[in-house]
Amino acid sequence: MERAEKHEFVTSLNDELADTGVVVVAHYAGLSVAQMTALRASVREAGGSVKVAKNRLVKLALKGTDLEHISDLFQGPTVLVYSEDPVAAPKAAVDFAKANDQFAILGGALGTTNLNPDGVKSLATMPSLDELRAKLVGMIQTPASRIAQVVNAPAGQLARVFNAYATKDEAA
Fold first, then answer.
1. Into which family does the record put it (predicted)?
2. Are residues 24 and 101 in the same domain?
3. Is residue 157 helix, strand or coil?
4. pTM value?
5. Inter-CA distances, 58 with 115, 134, 135, Å
6. Domain containing 167: what range?
7. pLDDT above 80 (res 154)
């Protein structure tokens, strides 16, 4: 890469990282091309991105962002997994790490908060934003349907009583 290309790469990575909700940093040494392709596909499907770059360029790109405090994680062959959704990238990275021993999660950041590997794993177990929205809608709908059942119950009971009297009169 020429100097101008490096500057352009650092600028674009800085812009991308400034808009992310969470970043996971991991070692990827020993992964095959097929495994890296599978990682990229699973992270893209979850709504995130994967970036492999020189550590020095990533450290330059982190300057001026809320993620500058994770610069010390960039030693050796590292990969960035990031997304706007605070659960998507950690979930995809942890799932991939379970299937591939060579993929070692070093840590990450959620905004200005440092995450150690256990923090990334615990973040991965949380429900996504869409799942939380679905649960909230379900919780809101449940009382409304119960109210409708309670309101309709007396009318149904009256109808059953009238039906019982009618069948009793017919039988007699």
1. Belongs to the universal ribosomal protein uL10 family.
2. yes
3. helix
4. 0.72
5. 18, 37, 38
6. 127-172
7. no
